[in-house]
Amino acid sequence: MYKLSTILMACGALACAQDKVTVPLSNPSQPATVKAHLMSGSITVTGGGTAGQVVIESSNASRSRREPKDMPQGMHRIDTGGGGFDAEEDHNVVTIGSGRYMGGSENITITVPTNASLQLKSINGGKIEVTGVNGEIEVENINGSIVLKDVSGNVVAASQNGSITANLDKITPGKPMSFTTMNGKLDVTLPADTKAKLRLKTDNGSVYSDFDVKMEPDTSKPVIEDARGQGGRYRIRMDHSVYGSINGGGPEYRFETMNGSILIHKK
User: Which end of the chain is more exposed for a tag (fewer CB within 10 A), N or C?
Assistant: First the structure.
């Protein structure tokens, strides 16, 4: 197991810092899995890096520090450090998390080998962007957008307040995918030969596609939620999604937004 802990220092009136570390993989011949979870900040991942290692760069740019009203006359404040991240590698799984100081926004840039799986999550104030990665890609951004460029494999992407843009070069046949947000547009490009069953839902928006989508005639279906075994209730609700298929159908691809349109492009 390879362990690393990096705490970044502040500089100037605007707390800012940069650091770069290289994490070697336990088995360089095997694909890596990278898990990055931030409380606040952006995550950028780029594929095509050197085999057998993951490179992490961090920059902290917290809000400017105003002098407190109760500061004694003739004195100035001294910053005691800021930002940082923790990283740990265990059997080709690299786990990255926010450092101990949570006062600013930590932006993480990660360079990985092309064949890598990702689990990325940010909660506040940052964009998650992935370019040129082939693998299992799971992305969650609570308050920010998600952008996936020239990726391959299969994707599960979710946001609460942000758009999702994804451009897939190749897909993993037979595996489902999901693109969901509460407030934002879904703009997804798929290979022309993609075989999938589409589940589409938008409350305040429209759905567009240049695929030849064969719609199902009756798409209003009851959904049963039985939580009585866990002390809950038995509930039946109507699913207002619409269903269709492209290229004869296949695994389910879910596209759902409450406030926004859905665009499904043929690459």
Answer: N
Cβ atoms of 149 and 167 within 8 Å: the answer is: yes
* 109: confidence class by pLDDT, cuts 50, 70, 90: very high
Question: For residue 208, what are the contacts with CB-CB under 8 A and spacing of at least 6?
Answer: 261, 262, 263, 264
Closest to 203 measured CA to CA, from 263, 264, 259, 262: 259
Nearest to 209 by CA among 158, 256, 261: 261
User: Is 80 exceeded by the pLDDT of residue 184?
Assistant: yes
Categorize the per-residue pLDDT at 78 as very low, low, confident or very high, splitting at 50, 70 and 90: low
Q: Which of 102, 129, 144 is the last residue of a domain?
A: 144
Query: 180 near 162, Cβ under 8 Å?
Result: no
Are 137 and 203 found together in one domain? no
Considering Cα of 95, then 109, then 140, then 170, what sign does the dihedral take?
negative
Domain containing 35 equals 1-61+81-144
**DSSP 3-state assignment of 228?**
helix
In this structure, what token pair is assigned to residue 100?
């101990």
Q: Tokens at residue 219, please?
A: 């798409």
Same domain, yes or no, for 140 and 52? yes
Same domain, 179 and 252: yes
How confident is the model over 252-264, as a mean pLDDT? Answer: 97
User: What is the number of structural domains in the chain?
Assistant: 2
